[in-house]
Each structure stands twice: as structure tokens, then as C-alpha cells.
UniProtKB/TrEMBL annotation:
It holds the Pfam family Beta-prop_EML_2. This is EML-like second beta-propeller domain-containing protein. Residues 404-561 form the EML-like second beta-propeller domain. It comes from Paramecium sonneborni. CDD domains: WD40. The lineage of its organism: Eukaryota, Sar, Alveolata, Ciliophora, Intramacronucleata. InterPro entries: 5peptide_repeat, Beta-prop_EML-like_2nd, WD40_repeat_CS, WD40_rpt. WD repeats lie at residues 394-435, 436-477, 478-519, 520-561, 562-603, 604-645, 646-687, 688-724, 730-764, 772-813, 814-855, 856-897, 898-939, 940-976, 982-1023.
Amino acid sequence: MNCQYHNLCPIISVCISPHKCQFQRKLCFKCLYAHGVDLKQTIPIDNFQEKAQKKLQDLNADQNEELIQQKLAFKSILSQTQNTLKNIWDVLYESINQIFEIIEKENNSYINLISLNPIESSITELEQLVSIVDGPKLNDWCFQKTQYLMELKQIIYLWEKEIQVLVEKSNEKMEKIQQILTQIEGCNQPYVRKEDLCQILNSIWDIDESIFKGIIDIVRKEKIQNIIGFISKPLNPQIYGSFVNQQQTIDDVKRKIMNIAYALRNILEHQFSKHDYTNEAYEKDRLNLIMNLESNKNFINFLKFLVQLTAIDNQFIQSGSNAFNLLVSMKVDLKNQCLENIKIKNTALTDGNFVGCNFSGSELENVDISGVNFNGALLLNCQWKNIQINELNTLNLNSYVNSVCISPDGTKLASGSGDKSIRLWDVKTGQQIAKWDGHSNSVFSVCFSPDGTSLASGSGDKSICLWNVKTGQQRAKWNGRSNSVFSVCYSPDGTKLASGSGDKSIRLWDVKTGQQIAKWDGHSNSVFSVCFSPDGTTLASGSGDESICLWDVKTGQQRAKWNDHSNSVFSVCFSPDGITLASGSGDKSICLTNVETGEQKVKLVGHTNYVNSVCFSPKGDTLASCGIDKSIRIWDAKTGQQRGEIDGHIDYVRSICYSPDGTILASGSFDQSICLWDAQIGQQMVKLDGQNNTVWSICFSPDGTKLASGSSDKSICLWDVQTGLQKIKMNGHSDYVRSVCFSPDGTTLASGSYDNSICLWDVQIGQQKGYLNGHVGFVLSVCFSPDGTKLASGSSDKSICIWDVKTGQQKVKMNGHSDYVRSVCFSPDGTTLASGSNDNSIRLWNVQTGQLQALINGHSNYVLSVCFSPDGTTLASGSVDKSILLWDVKTGLQKAKFDGHTHYVISVCYSPDGSILASGSYDNSICLWDLQRGQLKARLEGHSNYVLSICFSPDGTILASGSEDKSILLWDVKTGLQKVFLENHDNDLWPICFSQDRNTLASQSWNNTIRLWDVKTGFEIESQDKNYQALIAQFDIPLNSNNPLVKDFYYNYSQRSLFPNLQISQIRKIQAKGALILKGEFMNYQGYDLIQLLKSKGSYFLEEILEKND
């Protein structure tokens, strides 16, 4: 028999190692090499069979005589018992029946006599009647009858007792027999003590969330306190009956439940249940656990199960507390969870995100909650003691934040502070990346260069510094001012830097040389803000003299001066289209002014103190503002109406800035913190959790049932197209996954990565089956040949490789491009390979010989994508020059040019019938081109960032698109409507690929993951937190406009996205905006009552609301 993993290789050995064998214990010689287990742990097939036979003989396991004898004896005793019992029952029935018949007959005789007419009665009958009326005969009978009935009653009572004892004893015997039965069936292995926590958890690796949740529901309902004893009962109908269904047999359920029971028993005997694992002594064990657990969803579900058990069984308080710490450390999504009545002690939950969680009735003791986010949480009747919060000791520090700026790629945030430093932060994690010291006074302004490689800073020390963002080195320091530099701003092309100063002047600098180009004097007071127009021709300045000036950058002439404000102008900002200028002032107002005419379009009034900063969203439809009133306000830029108000800072908000994609709003404050806010208010989309980063690549499987996705989070996800559910997540790359492609038969998925390697994956089981290593640069594109025997790869090392899929050997290496090879594509007949490169060229290669067949030049910039038409006669190409070109493959001549995108064309793809060409672009859109008419058929808009990859399903009815907004959209090609939204990568999504049956889509991301998606649907899991309106109704709080607290309730819960998702601060700060609190106790380890702190964070105390309503 040949190996199922290496088809031509016979099975030669059996693995006997005590592990979960990746080759199912049947090994060929190739498996032996890849197996990674000592050869001593393998036995040749023949020897294995001989050894098994010898074991059988040595133990007389093949001798069945005794077994047969016992079986016959058991049958005999059961048969005898059955016959004996039957005889007893028969005799008993007959005897009792006779007694009642005799009593009944005697009774009837007296009744019949008494009913006779004495005149008509015979002498015998009359004598009997006289003895009844005048004698003791009837009295004697009634007495005897009563005695008989009492004796029978006593016998029945004793018999019931004996039967009950018999039944109980029989049940005990039955339980023992059932235990033996389940053990023999293999459904319930005998309990084995395990010392290694990972081994304990491995025993429940295949148990899904539904089992854990079902057990919790049952034990809560039944008010069980001993969880192990309850679930260990054989054939417990309360447990087993709940889980048996079409997918799970009674045997499956038995095995899973008993495995949970044994795992819990092992945990109780382990150090995990006795000690605080945040203690330094357990740090190594804790990190090892995190490394082993975070990739398995069922392990995470078990940890959640342990946390819930703390509310049920006190034996699990410490292990559940340790589990809670691990979940927080692994950044597991714990938002909107029901955590009622949990008991947590002796652990740390630092930086945990519990937005919208229900902690009602919870007991916390000796727990560190520094930096925890309780925004919107329910905290009713909580008992929290000995709580640790670092913030309590550091609320009054004075390292205020003057300025914040997000990098052009949205990954970094820079802040300038009163402590004279500049800090660089990771936007995703909130972790500080770097701290730069170079100024000798407060840093008032920071600004990234348009390419994100440099950062400019202006300071109270009168200098401007330029910093290398990558290295943190100071590139330049300019000292030319006689007063503080309040504002710095790069020109859109990055060649100039403008600065505004306390010396009342504006200066223009050449970034390359550091020379001052110009100095403009027009203000009579400090210049607090400068801003270039989007086209770089105009500079706006706002000043303490209450005016705004517009300057011609080329001539230095003042184009206009406006005096719309009655106090200092602290901030100016152009709209993205350059038509409108927004200004924020000390007069508490914001003005929107037409740049061309100087007419004031609208005046925004809402702030109750100075407006410090204004910023347009990238789309220009929204304006954000912040001020000394500690608030951030969101405005409709067209109508001037206030859309929302964000109150999260506890001191002046000094600076705000939108991320380039408009999804995040950053704010810096005098409270020493930076907050990142979800800027998309009230927008909900269906999503699937799994990958949360840019999706670089997606690909349908040949049968269309699966979708693979590759992402910047280094993973590959496999999705079920029909249900929208994630099937498999594959981790194997150590850097961004740039390209994914299904083999024509759909059994293999290839992935190319920035780690310079290519991985081949078994789609069925999600296991890596091959590893191709030959490039010395990033692998940017992979493509299977039509027959599936070859794989082509293009790399940043400028080469193209052709690989033998079966052997993994490199067959051909083609060198000809002078820059990165961005895209490779086989012709439908597999004889020609096309490649597109950063050298602006397209090349056609002979697959067999590796020789160059043709060189095609026509694009004026990088060629990012190439794709053959289904008939192989035409090649389409997309380029950084924003165009799509169609080429005659035979002649190499240009057939057509499509111009419709306003930014780079990243991906092109033909529909299976060749009638439509789809293109994805950096302008966030997808274009569908009618090739017969040569014109745009439809423009699909739904992504909020670059469209990086597109792919048609095999039948051409669905188009999948992957984007830097971390999502995959599925479109109906006929209607142009969006069908499904998949959001699961931890980073940008690049290539995507459909399976042939169109039910699956593969995608990949920067996070090194490849994922497979179900294409048809994608349903969001509803939050399980309690409804706040129902809670308010319980307290009979009137929901009217005169109750400001209730208005805040509606606002905070209906606009959940206004709760900060992440807060960046050197000090870990607890958040509790909109948390609802009733009674309870909240005390720190020093005896400090935390109620005032929670109030300062924006929590609501229901008792106070009730008192006010009374």
C-alpha cells in the first residue's frame, strides 16, 4: 500500500511515538525524513506485525474459553433470576387476587341477605338475617375484614421498601456495568494523572464551544456546585440528552464529557489551581502556555469555560483566574461577554478590553485591573476588594500631549509632549515603539512627511527637528526662530516644510538642504497653525491676532486675509478637495470658509471653551474638533450639524488627527494620554472573526466551495463559501503572506511570502505538505500550471522560478527583469508564462525551456498584475500608471487601453467566459469592463481602502475582492451588488483565489496567514450582553428628554463606536465610560474607595439616578 501523502512511495514503517502523528502512523521513507521523530520510535511493518502477534500469544489474549464461560454463566444467572422473579410475581398476583375475591364474595353475601324481603325469604335466609340484625356475626366479619386489609397494607408498604432497595442496589450495579462498558468501548478511558498542563489541555483539543456552553447552562439551571461529580455520572440524561444530535452520537458525547471531567480533575491537582501564574516563578510556564494555546480555538474556549466555572464551583477560582489572565494576555476578544457572578482572585487583568461585558455579581480579590477597559459594562452588585490600579498613584502627572499625527500608512502615531520628548506608537497594539529626545522644551507640533519616512517636530526651544522614522536618528535641526515653533507642516510633495512661530512669522524650508526658502510676515501675533492646501499651491495660517491668512507658496504673496473670529485662531485645516478651510478659535467656534471667495459657508457652535484643533476626515464629509472643554465633537461638513460628542479625556484635548483611511481618530490631551477612537459611527456590517489585518490575496478553490485568503497577519484562512464560516486557519510563514493559489484539482493551496518561501498546503486537513525554498527575496506571486504539475513564482530578487509540484524541485529559473517581479500567470495551455515587473515591462517565457519569447513595453510605470484571457489570445496588464492594457499574445501589439481608475491598478482578472475584465485599484474601487464593447460596465464601491486582489468564481457569477481595509467582499457580477462581507485577517489582504466549485475562497494577509472562506454568507455573532434599556426599565427610570443621564445612556449605547477602542498612555489608565453601577463594593488594596475614580471615568450609578428622579 502506498503512502497517502507521497503517492508513489510504499508504507515501510509504523510510528510508535507517544504523540499525535501527522502522517497517521503510516510512514514511507519520505515521511520518515519529515517526521522529526527518532527512528527508535518507528518499527518496520513486518516487525510490527510479528511483535503484535507475539504480544497476543504471550498474554493469551486469543484464548476465549474463559470469556465464553463467564458470558454463559452471566446469561444463566440472568435467565434464572428472570424465571424466579416471574414465578414469584405470578404466585404473588394469584394469592393477592384470591384474598380480594374472598373478601368481596363475603361482603356481597351480607349485602344480598340484607336486601331480601323477610316475608318472601326462606327460613334459612330468615335465620341468617336474624343473626345479622340481633347477633354479632356481621360485626365479627367487619372486624376480620379490617384486619385483613391492614395486614395487606402493611405487606404492600414493606414490599415497596424492599423493591426500592432492590432498585437502588440494581442501579448501583448497573452504573458499575455501564462504567465497564464505556471503558471497553473506548468512550471513557481510565483516569490518568497528568503533570504537564499542555498535555491536560490536549485531551480536550477537539471539544467545541457548544459543549462547554451547554454544560454551563445545565449546571446553572440545576444549581450544581460540584461540576466534576455532576458530569461524571454515567448516562446522566441531563447532560447527554442535551448534546446528542445528528452530528454527535451518544458515544461521542460520552467521550467528550468524560474527557472534560478528567481534564478538570487533573487541573484541580495541578499547580494551576493552587498558585497565581502571574508570579515571576511561573513566568516561563505561562509564556509556554500562551505559545501553545493561542492557535487553537477550542483551548481558548476551555479557558473561557474555566472562567465561567468560578461562578459555579469554588474549587476552580484560582485556575479560572489564571485562565482569565491567559485570555487577556493572548488578546482574545472578550468584548460583550456575560461574566455574571464570576469569582476572580490573585491575578492580573491589565489592559484587558471588556467593553460591554456583564460583570454583575462578580467577586474580584487581589486583582490588578490597571489599564482595563470597562466602557459600557454592567457592574451591578459587584464585590471587588484589594484591587490594584497603578493609575491611582499617577493621576496628577504633568506630561501633557500637545500634538498627535498618524503616519500615511496608518500604522504609527507620533506624539509631541510637554516632557520635551517625541514618542512613536504602534496604532494597532498601543505599544510605544520609540522615544526621541532632542528638544530642550515642550514639543508643540509633529508632522509626518507624505512618504512616512520622516517626522518633523516644532518646539518651545525655538527649533525644528527632522527625524528618520525607521532609525529614530535626528536628520537635521534648524535653529532660525526667535520664539517657540507652534506648528509644522509638510507640503504634499514632501519637498518643503512650513512653520508657524511665536515670533509672528511663517517660514518655508527646503527639506533636502535645510535652507530657509522664504519668510512671510503678515500677522501681528503668534502663528499657532499652518496648513498646505492639497495641491500644495496655498498655505493657510491661523494666528493669535484673530486672523487667517492665505499665502501663495510660489510667490510668497498674501492672497487673502480673513477676520471671522473674535479670538485667537488655534487651528486651520483644508478639506481634501481644497475648496473649504476649517478654523478653530478661542471664541469657541469653528468657521468653514470658501477658499476661493473668502465667504463663510457655516459657523459651528457647540464647544463651551477654546477650540484647539480641527481636522477633516479623508473623505471630507466629516470634521472633527477638540478643545479646552475636554470634548471631541464630530460635525457634518456639509450641513454644519453636530453628529456626535466624545467625552473620554479628563483634561484639555489639545490635538486630533484622522488616520489615512478615516477609520480611526486620534486625540492627544493634557491628561497625559492619547486615545484612538473608532471614527465610523453607527455603521454595522456582517463579519467573521479570524483575520484582522490587510488581506493581500484571495483565491477560490476549483470547485467553488472554498475561499482562501492570505494576510499581513502571517496566516492563511480557508472559508466555506456557502456558510461564510471559517473552516481552517493555517500558520507556517514567518512574514507577510503575499500570494495564494489553488491547484487545478483543489487539493493543494500554494502560498508565497515575504519570508522568501513558498508553502504547499493540504486543503482537506490544513497541514503543510511541502516547502519550496529557492528565492533570495520576497515571493510576490505564485501560480499553478493548468495541469497542476508545475508552480511558477515571481520574486523581489528579480527572478521567476518554475517548480515541480510533486518533488518540490526547482526545474527552471528565469532571469531577465531588472526589478521586482510582481505578477506571474500561465497561459491556458500551460506552454507560456507571463510576468509583470517594476521595470515597467511584461515578458513572455517558454515554460519548457525557460527562454524569453517576447518583451512587451507599453506601461510608463510598474506592472503590478498580468492575466491571460481564457482563450489565451489576449493578455491584460494593470499598472501604477493607472491604466489597463490589453495585448495580442501572438504579435505583442497593444489591442486596447482602459482608463477609469484614479490610482494604481493593483489587480486584473478575466471572467471565465472572457467577456468581462475586472480591475482593482488603490482608489478603493473595482471596475468591470465589457470587453466586447470596450467600455466600463460597472464600478463597484464598498471597500474603505485599497483593493489589492480580485478573483472570479469558476462559474463567473461571483467576484471576490480583498482589501487593505482587512475585509473580503463578494459581489454579484450580474447586479453589481455586494453579497457577503468577510472580515477576519489581522492585517492587509492581498491575493485572493476561488476554488473551482466556487464555494470556497482563499485569502492571504500581511500577518503571515492564509485563510479559506465560505463564500455564500457571513453572519455576525450577536453580542450576548444584556440590553441596557431593559435594565433601565427595571429601575423605572423615565426615558424622557429632561433626564440628561438617560439621554447619555441612549447616546453611549446607540453610538457604541464612540467608546475608545484603545488608549495610549505611559500610565495604564482604566476606562469605564458609560458603565452602569448599582450598589456593590469597589475597594483598592490601600482601602481606597474606587467609586470616585469610576465616576470620573464617566460611569453611572443607578442609585443616584433613582434619587434624582424621586
